[in-house]
Amino acid sequence: MAEQKNKIFSQRALDRINSPEQLNDYLKVTNPGIWVILAAVITLLIGFIAWASLGKLETTVSAMADVSDGTANVWATENTPVPIAAGMTVRIGSEEYSIASMSKDDHGRTVALVPVELLDGDYEAKIVVETVSPVTFLFK
């Protein structure tokens, strides 16, 4: 019976396994390129997880701001997916302001009143109507 078990493998294979000089032939060294690819994938995954948990996605609406005497009358220049309300953020240039109150103008448009520290004039603005963290998409 013992002879039959030895016959399963060829004599050449058995000699190779039993030879101490051949032991290193069975060790497979990984390619450094694989480690670079693995490091890149892990870095991208960590970056995505950080962005998903700490980042934010904003829905903005284009608007115009007419500033006079420290108050900006801001109205949307496009249809809004969400009604504009007090407390929303308005970006005029690189500055951010909060909508103090709402009113209607002579044309029937809803106008946001925003206290600002800008010179009088007309400015392009953005109204942030919604802010969402990307991680919330995973749990919906």
Brief rundown of the structure:
With 140 residues, the chain is α+β, with helices and mostly antiparallel strands. It is built from three helices and seven strands. The protein has helices spanning 2-8, 11-18, 32-54, and strands spanning 57-68, 71-76, 89-92, 95-98, 101-104, 110-115, 121-132.
Give an overview of the whole structure.
With 140 residues, the protein is of the alpha+beta class. It folds into two domains: 53 residues, no CATH class; 83 residues, Elongation Factor Tu (Ef-tu), domain 3, CATH 2.40.30.170. 27% of the residues lie in helices and 34% in strands. A seven-stranded antiparallel β-sheet has the order 4-3-7-1-2-6-5, with no helix packed on it. Strand 5 and strand 6 form a beta hairpin. The radius of gyration is 34 Å and the shape is rod-shaped.
CATH H-level name of the largest domain... which superfamily?
A: Efflux pump adaptor protein, beta barrel domain
The major β-sheet equals: 7 strands, antiparallel
Name the structural class.
alpha+beta
Note the overall shape: rod-shaped
Spatial extent as radius of gyration? 34 Å
Query: From the coordinates shown, what is the CATH architecture of the largest domain?
Result: Beta Barrel
Question: How are the secondary structure elements laid out?
Answer:
Blueprint: H1 2-8, H2 11-18, H3 32-54, E1 57-68, E2 71-76, E3 89-92, E4 95-98, E5 101-104, E6 110-115, E7 121-132
Antiparallel strand pairs: 1-2, 1-7, 2-6, 3-4, 3-7, 5-6
